[in-house]
Amino acid sequence: MQPHDALVLQDLYHDYDRLRAVDGVSLSVRAGEVVCLVGPSGCGKSTVLRLAAGLEALQSGRVSMRGEVVGDPAKRIGVPPERRHVGLVFQDFALFPHLTVGDNVAFGLSQVPAADRDKRVRDVLRQVEMENYLDAYPHALSGGQQQRVALARALAPEPSVLLLDEPFSGLDERLREQVRDDTLRLLRRNGTAALLVTHDPEEALFMADRIYLMRAGRIVQSGPPQELYYRPADLFVASFFSRVNEIRGVVRDGHVEGPLGRLCAPDRQEGERVVVTFRPEAVSLAPVLGDQADGLNVEVQDTHFLGTGWVVHVLVQDAEGRDVKLSVRLHGRPPKAGERVALRVPSDAILMFPET
Ligand code: ADP
Fold first, then answer.
1. Residue that terminates a domain, selected from 216, 236, 256
2. Domain of 261, in residue numbers
3. How many domains does the chain have?
4. d(CA 95, CA 336)
5. Of these four, 117, 226, 256, 264, which has the most CB atoms within 10 Å of its CB?
């Protein structure tokens, strides 16, 4: 543990009856760091967050904040949530409907003298650009405004760490991007350490300094966004962040034969079944000149306009003669369906994993 870690979770386990929801999770959030815990729905993310906050009784493991142990059942330590110095933001904002915006934000400031409390409420509402709504009630606010008040309320007591559970999921898509951006800027400006739970890979890539990717109660990989995207530990990680093309093959003499040629498979065992992957944006297509194709000569199946670019589908055959549909992402105008093109994939964009 580093002395400056805002939050450290060590070896957490959690069972609901006979279901193991959290299976040996360890993670840390350093001071000023925004960390995303991401994974498919039901993999145990919210439970981890609730264990960190003390909202769920810890069964096994240890939770520390700023170097102080706040949860450790083996030592009978269980600091209640209100004394953990955590700020909480949930998907449904959870504002008190009978309190004004100002009183909602003041709610967690009972320890602060009244005169300072007012100033703090105004300051933090100014930061989220909601100072003009001090006397408004939550029902009179839009979803985005309620989210900003929820954020202000969580930040007002200057928590050691902010815990956010799917905080943007309740917002429509256009608003979500704006509120995400504003939230990130605010966290950065205040140097607030944050652990954000999301099922949305793009949100994790956008927000995080570091990502922990969870699957079935376990952390499968952690690191900066680019590391998980470009150096995924397995096929699950690779395909979680964006669609990947997959071609199956078998290792023979340290190589895998397939439509992309004979690929080196130095770390794989003889006879092992593997999946060769690459992302749609890594592929390039060039015109075929005469009967010369500089790359794999393929026919375009269909093309789809996506606004930000095009997706093109081509059909290839794997080493066992099975058809495999590949996706290609292009920015410029694509070739037409039925045209033959030369397909190329740079070798550093190709990853190989054991078949699962
Ligand atoms: P996530 O946040 O990744 O969607 P959760 O932590 O909410 O996952 O849930 C993990 C697993 O535990 C799921 O299978 C879920 O159905 C189960 N679960 C969550 N909360 C409870 C509960 N209070 N009682 C029983 N099972 C629960």
1. 236
2. 243-354
3. 2
4. 53
5. 256
